[in-house]
Amino acid sequence: MMFLLVLIMLTACAASPQDLSNKMFTFPQQTNRAHVRLNTTMQDFSAVTVCHRSFTDLKRDHGLFSLATPSNQNEFLIFWDDTHKEMEPHIRNGKAEYGGWDYKPNMWHSICTTWDSASGLVQLWFDGQPSIRKFITSGSNIRGSLIIILGQEQDSHGGGFDIKQSFVGMMTDVHMWDYVLSPCEIHNYVDELNFTPGNVLNWRALDFQIVDRVLIEDKFKTCH
């Protein structure tokens, strides 16, 4: 009975949103299992902005943010294609390729991705620098039973992980909005100034579950 009570308490704690300000997720090894699942009650999006910061030394393909629905495993995916040196936003199984970014290893990078279903345009902001806008898909929303995962790239709804696409490194300040963030707000995020936190995913009140070996540690900054 006591064990059951403790288990219920631990489950309740895990399900409560946490303020992860000045914290980071550390993914310390290559694996096809370890990941963080991010939870939201929102299930219908006509526009999206996702921002995050990551730090890695990987010299291969890897997923940075993976949102899947039962009908589309790449409903909203941010993926680094190391072969072509491109950051690739995938939306509703379409994608755009953005090359020319200085995606250096062993340093923090801030990446924001925006998409609007009315225009179908996607835009990437890499360390505060905007890309051109490209068309991916328009006319339909992202909707359904969402599964959002950090650390792995979903090839099926909530699974299908490939160890060669796993993320190894650190990640922090993950936010998601159900609208296109303004350039000023994106710059405020990149510069770690005051900005409106995500209304879908908010790093300061994050509902998440950790699966396997992912650590929560104090965020560090590189000294110059």
Protein structure class = mainly beta
Mean pLDDT: 92
CATH topology (level 3) name: Jelly Rolls
Radius of gyration: 17 Å
Shape: globular
CATH architecture: Sandwich
The percent of residues in helical segments reads: under 10%
Low-pLDDT residue intervals, each spanning 5 or more residues = 1-13
- CATH uppermost class: Mainly Beta
Helix segment tally:
2
Plain-language structure description:
It contains two helices and 18 strands. It is mainly beta and 224 residues long. It has a single domain (20-218), classed as Sandwich (Jelly Rolls), CATH 2.60.120. Strand 7 and strand 8 form a beta hairpin. Homopentamer. Pentaxin (or pentraxin) have a discoid arrangement of 5 non-covalently bound subunits. One of its GO terms (molecular function) is metal ion binding.
